[in-house]
Amino acid sequence: MAKNSPSVPSGEMVVHARRARQSLSVVLHLKVAKATMTHSDQVEIFLDALLAMDRVAAKRALGGPTPADARLDVVERLVVPSLERIGALWERGEVSLSQVYMSGRLCEELVDAILPPSDPRRVDQPPMAIAVLDDYHLLGKRMVYSVLRASGYELKDYGTLDGDALVSRVVRDGIVVLLISVLMLPSALHIKRVRESLDRAGCRPFILVGGAPFRFDTELWREVGADAMADTAAEGVAVVRKLLENLPKGHRA
Ligand code: B12
């Protein structure tokens, strides 16, 4: 039988086989660890990376390449709860404002990189716009904008503006569906004035609102004169889709 025949392994082959077995066992071990990692473990790891301002670890915690249709889910499951936890820690004085700020910036960067691209198949729809009102918390608006575009909707992004600027742009652009994002209670209360000014201008867009104050107080959207609220970006798309299905033809662009 030849010296290095497969049935009689040489010393070198034995070492290779042992190394291969060891690395296979490491890979399997990692896979099992990943499979058994709970959702709260994942949030914990992402949260620690944010608070340590460790960009590389934060990116790794969000996972590798994700299929386009699952990316929003990753953001909703990891980014949103982690930032909420950071907000609560800040309220209790357990993290600094700079940590809140850097976590927000880091998330903006990571979320921008993974949100799904826009869908070229456009939907037949009336003019729509999204804005952040009197508030500099921009991440929620960015997610809603991106996920609507990924679902084939076209909408204007007004960025952050105050009530008067918002009203004049809505009137000028003949907006039929207006999405407003706010994260602070005083900003949420300003929506009431926006609605009143629009009424005075004879403009009655459908107003869909979202953001933390509406999740804390589930009746607030009615009090500020909105037509609907949604808890998440994905829910926002569902509300828009349903609204447009039921909209009389005359309202379409
Ligand atoms: C990151 C952060 C910041 C960052 C913002 C960075 C940035 N560029 O966005 C910085 C450091 C700048 C910041 C500043 C401040 N912040 Co701050 N911040 C946060 C924090 C921790 C996370 C916010 C966030 O980005 N969440 C992740 C995003 C994706 O979630 P989201 O916006 O809620 O969006 C989701 C849904 O709500 C929904 N959604 C959002 N908008 C819309 C709109 C529509 C139409 C739809 C359908 C859905 C929808 O979809 C999104 C995805 O599911 C929150 C804590 C919290 N509980 O929210 C505090 C928080 C919002 N901040 C707060 C405060 C007080 C401030 C400051 C006043 C602090 C200060 N003393 O200076 C300033 C004010 C800045 C300003 N004028 O706007 C308070 C607000 C309290 C209140 N009730 O009014 C919070 C709640 C913290 C707390 N617990 O006290 N903040």
Q: Radius of gyration, rounded?
A: 25 Å
- Helical content band: 55-70%
Order of helices and strands: HHHHHEHEHEHEHHEH
Number of strands: 5
First-to-last CA distance: 82 Å
Q: What's the CATH topology label of the largest domain?
A: Rossmann fold
Small molecules (ligands, ions, cofactors) in the structure: cobalamin
Spatially, the strands of the biggest sheet line up as 2-1-3-4-5
The dominant shape is globular
**Which stretches are low in confidence, meaning pLDDT under 50 for 5 or more residues running?**
1-34
The CATH class of the largest domain turns out to be Alpha Beta
Q: What fraction strand? A: 5-15%
- In CATH terms, the superfamily of the largest domain is Cobalamin-binding domain
The SS-based structural class is alpha/beta
pLDDT averaged residue by residue: 83
Q: Which CATH-level-2 architecture of the largest domain?
A: 3-Layer(aba) Sandwich
Total domains = 2
Largest sheet, described in full?
Answer: 5 strands, parallel
- Please tally the helical runs, counting DSSP H or I stretches of 4 or more residues: 11
Helix-strand blueprint:
Layout: H1 11-36, H2 39-51, H3 55-61, H4 68-91, H5 97-114, E1 128-133, H6 139-150, E2 156-161, H7 163-173, E3 177-181, H8 185-200, E4 206-210, H9 212-216, H10 220-223, E5 228-229, H11 233-246
Parallel strand pairs: 1-2, 1-3, 3-4, 4-5
Helix pairs in contact: 2-3, 2-4, 4-5, 6-11, 7-8
The structure holds cobalamin.
Q: How would you describe what is shown here?
A:
The protein is an alpha/beta fold and 253 residues long. The protein folds into 2 domains: 39-114, Orthogonal Bundle (Methyltransferase, Methionine Synthase (B12-binding Domains), Chain A, domain 1); 128-251, Rossmann fold, CATH 3.40.50.280. Helices cover 59% and strands 9% of the residues. It has 11 helices and 5 strands, in the order αααααβαβαβαβααβα. It has helices at 11-36, 39-51, 55-61, 68-91, 97-114, 139-150, 163-173, 185-200, 212-216, 220-223, 233-246; strands spanning 128-133, 156-161, 177-181, 206-210, 228-229. A 5-stranded parallel beta sheet has the order 2-1-3-4-5, with helices on both faces. β3, α8 (185-200) and β4 (206-210) form a beta-alpha-beta unit. α4 packs antiparallel against α5 (97-114). The N and C termini lie far apart (82 Å). The model is unreliable at 1-34 (pLDDT under 50). The protein binds cobalamin. Cobalamin (B12) is lined by residues 76, 80, 83-84, 86-88, 90-91, 100-101, 104, 108, 135-141, 143-144, 179-181, 183-185, 208-213, 230, 232-233, 236. Residues 76, 80, 83-84, 86-88, 90-91, 100-101, 104, 108, 135-141, 143-144, 179-181, 183-185, 208-213, 230, 232-233, 236 line the site of cobalamin.
